[in-house]
Write a structure and sequence with these properties.
By secondary structure, this protein is mainly beta. The protein contains three helices and twelve strands. It has one domain. A seven-stranded antiparallel β-sheet has the order 2-3-4-11-6-9-12. Strands 1-5-10-7-8 form a five-stranded antiparallel β-sheet, with no helix packed on it. Strand 7 and strand 8 form a beta hairpin. The N terminus and C terminus are likely disordered.
Amino acid sequence: MRFTLSAACALAMSSAALADMTNFRDWVDANSFATNSTSNLWYGTTGLGGPLMAPGTSWISAGQPFSTPLIGPLVSPGSEPGAAGPATFDGSWVHPGNGIPAVLTFAPQAPTLVGAVHVHTELIANGLSGNGITIQVLTTIGGVTTNHGQTFLGGTVSDQVDEFNLPAPTVLSPGDTVAILFGDNGSYLYDHVNFNAWMSPIPAPGSVALLGAGLVVAARRRR
């Protein structure tokens, strides 16, 4: 998509003004898990293109609590103790199902400039007993779906921030989507994960060329 510098600046300022809602945890704090609809700015599905999860105190799939995907409830620092340690940041539970990813979708309701998708994750509770999860980001823009790469979380008490850059800052319009897939990496058992996700209008520094080639740069933080 081609746009002028002034238009890009205006959209960037607009995106900054809406930054709290392009941050998943902030959106849930404002809206809760009480509704789950494709008309939401954020919504959860059982698998990519699958049915909407049922709303409530979490978004859940049929057959909960363990064998099918869920997103929620909210997590706060110090909660969810276990071998993986308690949570270190404000986020939300996510748990993939048996061969079925938990999918969180961002669906802009107005033109939104996006240059990167950031996913912050850590294992919580008994997460060290599992074999970890995969994290993948897909965009669908103008009906064209692009895979922006896949990363892995597992076997560590460290949290990580994975940054998935678009090839260039892109204006997402209503009808476009960003899908974040949390997969079971072969087994859903003990996939106890705290996460948050957010959009930014510019790509992560120093990553544009690499990510344009389909690679993902992961910024890892020690507790």
